[in-house]
Amino acid sequence: MSEITYKPGKEPHPRETRRIFRNIDREGYDPSIKCFMKDGGYQTLKKCLKMEPADITNEVKKSGLRGRGGAGFPTGVKWTFIPKGNTKPVYLVCNCDESEPGTFKDRFIVHQDPHQLIEGMIIACYAVQAHYAVIYMREEFPEAARIMQNALQEAEEKNFLGKNIQGSGFDLKIVLHRGAGAYICGEETGLINSIEGVRPYPRIKPPFFPAAIGLYGCPTIVNNVESLCQVRQVMMMGGEAYAAEGAQRSPGTRIIGVSGDVKRPGVYEIISGSITYGELLYDICGGPRIGRKFKAIIPGGASAKVMRCDEILKDRNPDGTVREMTIFDVPMDLDSIAKFGSMSGSGGVIVMDDTRSMPKVLNNLNRFFAWESCGQCSPCREGNPWMYKLSTRICEGKGAPEDVDLLKSVADNICGRTVCAFGEACSWPTQAFTTKFREEFLALTKPINALKPHSAETAEARKFLTRED
Amino acid sequence: MSETTNAIDAIAAPVSSPGEKFFPKFEVTPELVAKAQELVALYPEGKEQSAVLPIIHHIQEEFGYVCPEAMPWIAEMCKSTAIHVAGIVTFYPGIHRKCPGKFHFRVCRTIACALSGGEELLPYICSKMGVDPAEMTDEEPMVVSPDGLWSLEAVECLANCGFGPNVMVNDVLHSQVTRGKIDDIMAACKKELAAERKEAAAAKKEAAAARREARAAAAAEAAEATEPTAEEPVAKKTAAKKAPAKKAAPKKK
Question: Can you tell me the ipTM of this complex?
Answer without folding.
Answer: 0.90
